Amino acid sequence: MSDRSITFLKDRRTGELVEAALIDGVSRQEVESTESAWRPFLMNSLEERRRAGNSELSPPEHSHWDWRRKHEAVRGLIAYRMFGVECDGAMQGLMLVSAAGHPCRIKDQKGKEQVYVDFVATAPWNSPSLVEIPRFSLVGRVLIATAVQLSMEEGFRGRIGLHALPQAETFYARNCGMTDLGNDKRKEDLRYFEMTPEQAAAFLR
Amino acid sequence: MKFSFDKEWLGRHADSDQNLEIAAGSFSLDQVPRAMGNPAGDPAAEPRVVAFGRLINLSRRKRGWSIEDLAESSRIDVSEAIRIEHDPAYIPGPRTVYQLSTALDLPRERMLQLSGNMLVRDRRLGEQAVKFAARSESVEKLSRQEHQALEEFVRYLNESR
Amino acid sequence: MAGDKKTMTLNLTEAEMAVLEKLSLDKDLSKTAILRQALRLYQLVDNRLAQGDTLFLEDKEKKNKSELMVL
Q1: Which of A115, A116, A150, A154 to mutate to test the interface with C (most CBs of C within 10 A)?
Q2: Interface of B with C in 1-20 (CB under 8 A)
Q3: Which of A102, B82, B91, B146 is 20 to 30 Å apart from C57, CA to CA?
Q4: Is the Cα torsion angle A75, A78, A84, A90 positive or negative in sign?
Q5: A75 in Cβ contact with A95 (< 8 Å)
Q6: A101 chain-C contacts, CB cut-off 8 A
Q7: Is the model's pLDDT at B145 over the cut of 50?
Q8: What is the model's pLDDT at position B45?
């Protein structure tokens, strides 16, 4: 029951934009093959870094995420949607969103509905903190643009919200132009960001 | 539902997006709920949390940083930085620990365990933390003894498990 | 996914309609969208209750947690 739309990613090897597929409704099979591709790459990268004497031995903060478990947990629940970006025969990014249960917090839109990004991540080979030269960029932008479009389709006018992992704060504050509502004590102290309809329009321009 | 993406728009933003992390969601680590992580309720945790504050203090001073410098580099409040170094019962949140680890170049997962945010998997960590806490005193300049204690403890933290 | 839509006729009391209209105004959403949100939330709550969880509400000052009266 999934839909595909055409999108583009930047191939860092060639510097060119290449065609990719935005998948609306990632299947269990797709999630399984994603995990089997992402996990070994992640583990190998960490092992290499350790051998090279890199003192930073901690895995990236989301490396324990198990997308299969997430997929299973939201199966059949209509509030959730899982999206993926596929390119060059592999999944380059995944995102799970809720379209209910997360009302807005910014004063001017308090209580209004929004699309909340429960989880979003790019493939480990695209992660700048894990590899010297990431393979593809624009994964984050494509997925956030997807969340914004979904929000508009739902009648939420492009409002979205999310809790950024520390390294991603700059992307959401500066590149997406979202409002920073500060560290959320109820969510592991992560920084909560929210987008207004005006910011959504500016983002897509 | 069909989604549309303007190729030109994507191309325009590719440069400013690259080299930025984008992950959002939650820390995935097994976390001890804050209430349960309180050292007052768990006597075994106390030396670890003391060691954490001491480690931050010595690592900062080794770099010649003031508390303000540390707070700025880690993007945390000065008041919180002070609490971390001086209040043995204070457990900072995971984001703060993450930021401090990055600023001071210390292994994140071990720091989360040390600070009381994460279940400790390694019994040795407790022992090493006690040893370190006992050997380090707070004086202005890093004494040779403190230096040595710090080096050894950091070396241990960086060891593979 | 969002593709095929089915149509349904709803019979609501005046009081229910008034609630639907007020919510629609407050949330700046169509009445259909409000009902869609309601359905999503209801399924989420129901799903958790079916697993044996309890629904609690916590007051702003974090002083009191009270169990939501669920039918």
Answers
A1: A154
A2: 1
A3: B91
A4: positive
A5: no
A6: 40-41, 44
A7: yes
A8: 55
pLDDT of residue B34: 34
Q: Which residue has the tokens 């704060």?
A: A169
The ipTM, to two decimals, is 0.92
C-beta atoms surrounding A155 within 10 Å:
16
Q: How far apart are CA B15 and CA B34, in angstroms?
A: 40
Residues of A in contact with C29 (CB under 8 A): 113, 155-156
Residue A66 near residue A35 (C-beta atoms within 8 A): yes
Residue B41: predicted pLDDT = 40
Which residue ranges form the domains of chain A, and what is each CATH number?
Answer: 3-204 (3.40.630.30)
* pTM for the whole structure: 0.73
Three-state DSSP string of A90-136:
EEEEEEEEECCCCCCCCHHHCCCCCEEEEEEEECHHHCCCCCCCCCE
Domains and CATH numbers, chain B: 34-158 (1.10.260.40)
Interface chains of chain C (3 or more CB pairs under 8 Å): A, B
